[in-house]
From TrEMBL:
Lineage per the UniProt record: Bacteria, Pseudomonadati, Bacteroidota, Chitinophagia, Chitinophagales
Organism: Chitinophaga rupis
Record-given protein name: Peptide deformylase
List of catalytic residues: E149
Keywords assigned: Hydrolase, Iron, Metal-binding, Protein biosynthesis
Function summary: Removes the formyl group from the N-terminal Met of newly synthesized proteins. Requires at least a dipeptide for an efficient rate of reaction. N-terminal L-methionine is a prerequisite for activity but the enzyme has broad specificity at other positions.
GO BP: any one term: translation
UniProt gene name: def
Entry-linked InterPro entries: Peptide_deformylase, Peptide_deformylase_sf
Cofactor details (free text): Binds 1 Fe(2+) ion.
């Protein structure tokens, strides 16, 4: 089932999400709905707060980005094959490397894209959909997508990384999104 995506301005996007246990109600169905929602809205990642659940869960499919790069572009991200996986109760162990810009967007902030600087690598401790523990380092575009989705779990948005002048320039567009004055190809929830 495709879930509606929470729009900028909704308080759930600013909450710090909580860890869950294996007995979280209907977890496998919720994960399936997350994948369907992400693909249905042409996303490469989706965090639970974006579908109105303040829990530490996100899904990422960076394979679709890597697979669509030209060969010379792939050389810019050595060792990044992309991932398609579920991250539950993720916590950053380490983030390192030179910060580099990438033009990011967000399903909760439609039609706004801006360059954001993030480190090259992220090391995460998390459990998968079967609650098997993992600790793994991710690089390149995959790290970028994970950083972006992880931020949602801590109540942060990509626009928080923008310089104050850029934020002021986007103020009108952001207010329009929060008031529902936007059209998208997917269903959204607006805070009243």
């Amino acid at each position: 089932m495709i879930l509606p995506i929470v729009a900028y301005g909704h308080p759930v996007l600013r909450k710090v999400s909580e860890d869950i246990t294996p007995d979280y109600p209907h977890l496998q169905q919720f994960i399936a709905n997350m994948w369907e929602t992400m693909y249905g809205s042409s996303g490469v990642g989706l965090a639970a707060p974006q579908v109105n659940k303040a829990i530490r869960l996100f899904v990422v499919d960076s394979e679709q980005i890597i697979n669509n790069l030209e060969e010379d572009e792939k050389a810019e991200y050595p060792g990044d094959q992309g991932v398609k996986q579920v991250f539950i109760n993720a916590h950053i162990v380490d983030a390192e490397g030179k910060e580099w810009p990438y033009n990011e967007g967000c399903l909760s902030i439609p039609k706004i894209r801006e360059d954001v600087y993030r480190p090259e690598t992220i090391r995460l401790r998390y459990v998968d959909e079967n609650f098997q523990p993992h600790e793994r380092t991710f690089h390149g575009i995959t790290a970028r997508v994970i950083f972006h989705e992880y931020d949602h779990l801590d109540g942060k948005l990509f626009i928080d990384y923008l310089k104050p002048l850029k934020r002021r320039m986007l103020k009108g567009k952001l207010e329009d999104i929060s008031k529902g004055k936007i059209s998208t190809d997917y269903k959204m929830i607006f805070h009243k």
